[in-house]
User: Fold these one by one.
Assistant:
Number 1:
Amino acid sequence: MLLLTPAGDLQAQRIDGARGRYDLALILAACALASLGVVMVGSSSIAVAEGQHVGAFHYLQRHLMFLGLGLGAALVMARLELAWLQRHALPLLGLGAVLLLLVFAPMIGVRINGARRWIRFGPLGFQSVEAVKIIVVVYLSSYLVRHRDDVQGTLLGVIKPIGIAALFAALLLAQPDFGSATLLMAVVLGMVWLGGARLRDLAILGVAVTPLLAWLAFSQDYRVKRLTSFLDPWADPFKDGFQLTQALIAVGRGEWFGVGLGGSVQKLFYLPEAHTDFILAVLAEELGFAGILLVLVLFACLIGRGFVIGMRALEQNRHFAAYCAFGISLMLGLQALVSIGVNLGVLPTKGLTLPLISSGGSSVMMTCAAIGLLARVSYEVSRADNAMMALVAQRQPLAVRP
């Protein structure tokens, strides 16, 4: 038998030379949620816009503009090498701190409804925390790779990243933005746990921090009112419980299949923030239980694909990519969970929008960028798989003949 092999010594194919593909299910789920968001923003914002005398389709046009900017941001993130993000994780963290501090700067920071959460660039406003959430995920992913042994084996290794996140949370509380601060800390804790931290260490930190969280929750009157109105919104349905009771009325009117697209009554100046925080209540009224189920299925697909991509990256020992996928999936999943819970009356009002569906500016744009980062992880994981398959194929005999 004569064994024919390729001429010369075989060399391993570089991963950078291989071609990958973006996860199709992830992209389709994101596009479906964004499309549903366009429809619901158009339906829920017409009455609000006419009441403000800015044109019936003002908020829809604004939403489409930021969705287009978000698509551009997603394409940039999808083309950006993860190695570059890993190298520049610390400078990006510094940029995030600067963005949070700029909201307090005169002439730059903007106060809206008593909160300083926005910075203004000419005619456009930007909410700093939306970019900071992605930056913290990238930095923490880098930290978990560089200090994996410390995080998995010592309490101090767990305290350090959580302490950094706590500093950012303190800046958010100063704005004040209790909802975003809580979300950020929850994402960081989830990532640290997925990074291998011992449950014992996390439990010790939880016991130590619980009194502080309780104090923060009850230190402001408006937070106490949100908690009490959540427990019994019908006790004061025309004041503290107004938002939640109107949302529950909208959900109840929708029944199984809704009153029809555009037929919501609650969005006609009864339900506050109908096109932002409480857009799911309008969706439930117009599309019914079927519409809510559709939203849940699409988010389950999006978040599930994110975790699957992260697990594939972990199997390839691409830990930075895996932690980025886990962090983005946790961020989107927890924010969606809180928003849905608030609209259905099972969680206190937090002021968090429903990703890709609620009307928004910087929130829509940065959510698209986060999905672009998740798509980039899927591309690099697929590229590594293809490179390995090509290498294995090169090492096989070309032909075997007598």
Number 2:
Amino acid sequence: MLYSNITPEAKRRTLRAALASGRLQQFPGAFNPLSARLIEDKGFDGVYISGAVIAADLGLPDIGLTTLTEVTQRAGQIARMTDLPAIVDADTGFGEPMNVARTVQELENAGLAGCHIEDQVNPKRCGHLDGKNVVDLDTAVQRIRAAADARRDPDFLVMARTDLRGTDTLAATQDRCRALVEAGADAIFPEAMRDLDEFRAVRAAVDVPILANMTEFGKSELFTVEQLQDAGATMVIYPVTLLRSAMGAAERTLDSIRAHGTQEHGVADMQTRRRLYDLVDYEGYTRFDSSVFDFEVPGSPRRPGDADQAAR
């Protein structure tokens, strides 16, 4: 009821153990707290919180317009609603190395299990678009060193994302990954890898967990869990998949209402009231205080003792 009973520290330890397990960890992207509950309910390993999704939720493009306050607040709202560890996209750290340090501590306070800091020039852009610019190696290293030094919980995962492959060679990307690990990165996020061999090259360069980004309409093919694990990836994210699915369904429903004058044609594909109440644990609140929930959900079977409960 209310929020997760598992502490942020315990979630971070869970994440660390999972990354060391040898099994590829799947982290779908949550676009709100309820979708994080759904991800947990479906048996996934963790929750990913995309900067692009947070920006889109505010009606903004993913070009570095969101603030640390906005990202921390939304990420914390999502992380606290699930027992799973949640990692968040912290863009370029929202400023200079001192800002990066504050970013990490704010995310720790918000209950996140980890974050990734990227090496793009700010304002950044989506990692799967052309025309990206990355900072020099010294600046990239300073960001990661500041993040690693600032954390107070040693289990908080500091991941370094590099977009260098979009502007330079694979060998240069390998060299940067090594430098970022030496600076304190616990994991590497090589953005916009073009094929499985490029993931293998990153795996050959570093001995830390590697994240694969399986975003739709991007530079990478949508590889399977088996393909990615064979290529040396440790974690896979599906950052915008649920938002795109939800918005696609919403658009189709709106079109249907305009065309038919009713939503009736789309009802069969909607989440039912019963299922929504199950995800938000409506009946758990009933048990805590029957005054919160004192009516029968349509279509829900009555159980022995319901009448007695309602009378209390």
Number 3:
Amino acid sequence: MLFGLALFVALAWSSQASLHELEAVTDARSRSRSGLLLAAEVMSALKDVETGQRGYVLTGDEHYLDPVEIGMRRLDDTFEALRAMLADRPQARLDTLWTLIDHRVALAERNIADRRAYADEDSPWRRRLEEGRDTMDRIRVRFAAIEVMLRAEIEARDRSVDALRTRASVFNFLLPLSGVALILAAWSLLQRERRRRIDAEVALIAANARLEDAVARRTAELQQALGEIEAFAHGLDRSIEDERRRLAREVHDQLGQLLTALKMMVHRALQGAPGREQDWPQIEAVLGEGIATVRRISAALRPPLLDDLGLEAALGLACRQFAERTGVSCEATLADAGRLSANQANQLYRIAQEALTNVARHAQAGRVRVDGEAVEGEYRLAVEDDGVGMAPQARSSLGLLSMRERAALAGGELRIGAGAAGGVRIEARVPLGAAGEDGG
């Protein structure tokens, strides 16, 4: 009897110890999951800072600074919570990670300050964009290492929970064998321990469900934010094109008419004025140059052919003007351009315009072609030159980034490769019949 009681007590004590160990392992697993969520929140806040400052320095729009300020406010508190959560894990190297994050935030603040002070292409913020991307890549690598570490801990805790459950099952099997005399007491103790384990498992399942709901909710919020950003980009691009169209009309109609009227008034004023007839050719040349400048600025803001006759006529004129300005032969051959929406035509025109600018600046080409056609449900516009090719570092230039973003705004993509004559081929592909929002 005493032996049976001692055996029962020993088994009961072991079962109790297993329950406490299960609770400790469960708590450690929960802390590891919380660490994963905190790391994701820190990375999300840093991405808000990165995206906001990049949007601001590229567009100058103050609305992009709102997520920057929110992200900076969240970073300190969230990172301190993560530091406290991982204080017993020196391998996380949080001090080094914070140094990188602090450096990235400082770069963002300097870029924003420089963007307010400078607007030209040689401004300091443009040269620091690459440094910012490198710092973000290093930060992502650090967070990936922390995530791997925490997930490994969670898997280890899961294995510990399984082992504890297995050991508890063994105790449940041995307890009834401790003796007939103690079976009722053993049964009562077993039921109590069983209830406690069930409560612990229910609590664990509930905690997991809450964590999964939080992750799903955050994912949905991020997807909604991405959709809002894309919608804002579409609206911003349309508003920019509408403003260009308005400015082009104002410059052409108002300033052009004023210069023309001034030309006629000066001509009438000089007629019959003794000794002033010889000044008229020079005055006429100056006023003519002013009128030509007005027309050139108006066409640069918004080519009237794009609205009146479509993409084919606008690109044909752009090629002729490019050839006259640079001495580089330029040919444009487009078909089926009428199937494009107004938004797609505008984005493809701007892509071709930027590509021709890059050819003039860097390609050292003697010939360039602009081709467009509808192929397999999509429209493909290609600009190809026979120049010296593209340097590797040029693939991350602001001009190529702008072309990629315009292709995305038109619902398509941008491809960059070698041309048939050894130069560069830039091809934009946009879907037909799924153009998204029209306009501008």
